């Protein structure tokens, strides 16, 4: 739970930064007032920030497992709803592993996590041809301390949005 | 590039080798060797050996120093401090005063001389003596471009190693690996190559894309590796001298974990298909690919036996990573690892008798060996994280990487001999991982 908390902190920080940035833009450039369309935490609905902050772009896995936990399924349900509502973002699902495995196996384990995530989103109605998967194995850790709180943050699948098309 | 040494002990002045501009001439006479290291035992007492100076100029001193460092690094030899030498005559053609060498307990003596030919070539001569028998073991001379002086030194060390152990050496060889720089959460990885002793390191890629798991061709100056170039992780082939590279095969998903077949004509690797990884082999000439495994599991890290008839690989088809051996056509897979823990990254010894592996047990990462039938498991080293063994060309020594924990931690390369002794770090400019040993160059 510790790591879940620390993870939740960073989107909040991000939201504040985004809010400040928008405010700065308004002050400097006199952009039209679109504050009415800003969603929770100041992110524009349908934007990447909206997805990351208000839906959650990642799910976590147990050691050496690609099974989706109830928490993960709940996050992915929200992702699916959001992705169906905003159908123009192409999606890349990244699979990652922690450092406590061998390199080649972890590449396959990351791919297995990405595939499980993608398959779940498809089962909830997201179009399969919108999504590609990629595995980074243990090559792209987000947390670098040497204990379980970091390793568990690195065992993840991230739903990454590209710029909307059409 | 065969080392056609033949019966050089009995040869008189026969030119027997021309490699990379290095010409070797045997200067031996008929001899009887008594001193010999039995390296079939575990921790052998290192043999006291005197490596005399090879002359006064810098290149002579450098060559003698590399010969000495090579032999010392094997753990099988204990070079004697030059300060103890009584007989200072290094002339390889003069008969040593054996009593002076017996006094300081030198079992073997190397006398050498390095000079320049009129055409600028380097001339290096040496003679190996059995001190207690009072006889010559081997003598050779080399002519070479002075820029190749390190290779000359490694070839001399390999020759001494072979004479005294009865087995081929491994000093004239190189290692490809991944050079790592930058913080742990934003690592930059580059392919790199160096001599087996860490000298002459240079990078082969620029660090713009993530590269992993390089492996040497057994027959050419080529490396196969995995790269994220172009956004899709794929297996590539790189020609070391020209820098030319190409994607191996045309697969619809991630390909990874490549290794060459012993004849250098095929690459065996994994293809990711949804949640499963299967093993494929591709013929580099015909470009035909053949699927070798098809289970709903992660099958990866394939490695050919040196005769090309078998492939060892890891699979979690039984629930967790274990080692399996199948025929090279994919038939008759059989599990060979049955110990506790998870087994991965199997690599077949160039001698064919042993398989090296990484093992995870009790939160630690171990390097071990087992026989090809899975019996006789021995652990060589264990700790926080040891991974990815690779064999020296003679199958006596392994290199692997050892990672250290935490934000400032990172991997470094180590070598260890197959008895589990003589572990030492290979110095690299930065962090380093995924070593793969080349065949013997000569």
Describe the structure.
The complex is a heterodimer of chains A (166) and B (442). Chain A is 48% helix and 13% strand. By secondary structure, chain A is α+β, with helices and mostly antiparallel strands. Mean pLDDT of chain A is 81; it is low at 1-37. Chain B has 2 domains: 2-165, Rossmann fold; 174-437, TolB, C-terminal domain (Neuraminidase). With 442 residues, chain B is mainly β. Chain B has 3 helices and 31 strands. Classes of the chains: A alpha+beta (166), B mainly beta (442). Chains A and B meet through helix 4 and strand 3 of A and loops of B.
List keywords for this structure.
heterodimer, A: 166 residues, alpha+beta, 4-stranded mixed beta sheet, 4 strands, globular, disordered N terminus, B: 442 residues, mainly beta, Rossmann fold, Neuraminidase, 2 domains, 7-stranded mixed beta sheet, 3 helices, 9% helix
List the helices and strands and how they pair.
The complex is a heterodimer of chains A (166) and B (442).
Chain A: H1 2-29, H2 48-55, E1 58-60, H3 70-85, E2 91-96, H4 103-123, E3 131-137, H5 148-154, E4 156-161
Chain B: E1 15-19, E2 22-26, E3 47-51, H1 58-73, E4 77-79, H2 98-103, E5 108-116, E6 122-130, E7 135-144, H3 149-165, E8 174-181, E9 188-195, E10 202-203, E11 211-216, E12 222-227, E13 234-239, E14 245-247, E15 255-260, E16 266-273, E17 276-283, E18 289-291, E19 299-304, E20 310-315, E21 322-327, E22 334-335, E23 342-348, E24 354-361, E25 364-371, E26 378-383, E27 386-391, E28 397-402, E29 412-417, E30 424-426, E31 431-437
Parallel strand pairs in B: 3-4, 3-5
Antiparallel strand pairs in B: 1-2, 2-7, 5-6, 6-7, 8-9, 8-31, 9-10, 11-12, 12-13, 13-14, 15-16, 16-17, 17-18, 19-20, 20-21, 21-22, 23-24, 24-25, 25-26, 27-28, 28-29, 29-30
